[in-house]
Automatic annotation (TrEMBL):
It is a multi-pass membrane protein. This is MFS transporter. InterPro entries: MFS (IPR011701), MFS_dom (IPR020846), MFS_trans_sf (IPR036259), MFS_Transporters (IPR050171). It is found in: Cell membrane. Residues 31-415 form the Major facilitator superfamily (MFS) profile domain. It comes from Streptomyces stramineus. The chain crosses the membrane at residues 35-57, 69-86, 188-206, 232-257, 263-287, 299-317, 323-342, 363-385, 391-410. Keywords: Cell membrane, Membrane, Transmembrane, Transmembrane helix, Transport. Gene3D superfamilies: MFS general substrate transporter like domains (1.20.1250.20).
Length: 422
């Protein structure tokens, strides 16, 4: 071998390259960088609220636990109601104009939460905020597609936005944790003031983005119903069903660790942190190639297989010593994160390829319905399966394996971003 010949990169060098990929968005220039900054600030503000919303309603507003659950549930229903209509509005007026309005509305709605003092005012404010909570995501994604030119740029930019959102959510949890540590209503309201400010800044930043033209078809004709696009509906259903891995991570593994293994309980929080860090660092790198539909489909298939393997191995942690269970669960979280990233990269690659130019926001809003429905069904399903013990994990493994097999049937020869006129 020639002395100048280099061997394969080491795992450390690969991790370094992945870390560089994760910060590359901030090296971008011009409008796309401003969009990345706006997305980061929005995620930071939302992360503050999501990390302590239940505590805020009980400790600062003074609601009972049942009333708090009811208020948050109604907010979730409101988000479902608003998702598709607001996506259609964005297609009509343009993603940038819609985002300015949505972010400004969000700032006002969260200011109303700040002023809530009883059940009625809290319900009205939280429901109003929930109405638009799911719509900003697909509209932001539609704007990313409008501001990029090639399939590779689009998929890479969407992966960057997911990484930035994960980082923002994680950082937003820090001031929320500080407020919980202080425990006074004033501390909670101070953090929520930060959320309102973040949304107001995001609305201002959105005003500085380029006003991309509305697709001609969005104004000239009635939009084709996305539910008639069988391929896109199938992709949405498969992606939403595979999102069950989010609840394996946030509900299944922590409860199993605490109740069925000898691993230290503090490990549950550490495992969530490991997942967040890996998702931020690896998201952009693992999305590479997903702009090609066959590659994106293979990612979905591999995600299902990997997630199935994780679920089938979890029960083993309950039959080994505590230290070994800790090592096994940590390894499984790393593997689960790889499956999660293959799932998001593959599904979004196919979604971008199948989204018509003149209905981007509407299609992406529909695609987001898959995960939205999963957030309603997933926690209940996870709780039921945990009651079955090892058999419940076997059912989950079969679920993901079946999704991997179904994913192989997704067609990948549909013309990219077919217009509604087709």
């Amino acid at each position: 071998m020639s002395p100048t010949t280099q061997g394969p990169p080491s795992p450390l060098s690969r991790l370094r390259e992945a870390a560089l990929d994760s910060v590359r968005p901030f090296r971008a220039s011009g409008p796309i960088r401003r969009l990345y900054v706006a997305i980061s600030i929005d995620a930071l503000g939302l992360g503050m609220y999501l990390a302590f919303s239940a505590l805020y309603l009980t400790q600062a507003v003074g609601l009972s636990t049942p009333d708090t659950g009811l208020v948050l549930s109604i907010s979730g229903v409101a988000s479902l109601v608003g998702l598709m209509p607001l996506g259609a509005v964005a297609d009509r007026i343009g993603a940038r104009r819609a985002l300015i309005s949505f972010f400004a509305y969000r700032a006002v709605a969260f200011a109303a939460i700040l002023l809530a003092r009883d059940f009625v005012t809290a319900l009205a404010a939280v429901a109003a905020a929930g109405l638009i909570s799911r719509a900003t995501g697909p509209v932001t994604q539609a704007l990313v597609l409008e501001m990029t030119d090639t399939e590779q740029e689009r998929v890479s930019a969407l992966a960057a936005t997911r990484a930035l959102r994960n980082a923002g959510y994680a950082l937003g949890a820090l001031p929320a944790a500080a407020a919980a540590a202080v425990g006074t209503p004033a501390a909670y309201r101070a953090v929520l003031c930060g959320t309102v400010l973040a949304f107001a800044v995001t609305a201002w930043l959105a005003r500085r983005l380029p006003d991309t033209p509305v697709a001609r078809g969005a104004r000239e004709r009635k939009a084709r119903s996305v539910v008639r696009d069988r391929r896109f509906v199938a992709l949405t259903a498969i992606s939403g069903a595979m999102s069950m891995h989010a609840f394996v991570l946030s509900i299944g593994l922590p409860l199993w660790l605490v109740g069925q293994t000898g691993a230290p309980h503090w490990l549950a929080s550490l495992l969530l942190l490991v997942n967040t860090v890996l998702a931020v660092v690896l998201q952009v790198r693992m999305s590479q190639g997903s702009e090609r539909p066959p590659t994106a489909r293979r990612m979905l298939v591999k995600a299902g297989v990997v997630l199935a393997a994780v679920c089938l191995l979890v029960p083993l942690s309950g039959r080994i010593p505590g230290w070994a269970a800790a090592v096994l669960l940590a390894a499984l979280v790393v593997v689960l994160t790889v499956g999660e990233l293959w799932h998001t990269s593959g599904s979004w690659g196919l979604a971008v390829e199948g989204t018509p130019d003149d209905q981007r926001a509407g299609y992406l809003a529909f695609f987001n319905l898959g995960f939205t429905v999963a957030t309603i069904v997933g926690p209940m399903a996870m709780g039921f399966l945990l009651e079955l013990g090892g058999w419940g994990w076997a059912v989950l493994g079969g679920w993901f394996l079946a999704l991997a097999l179904v994913s192989r049937l997704l067609p990948v020869n549909t013309p990219a971003r077919e217009t509604a006129a087709a």
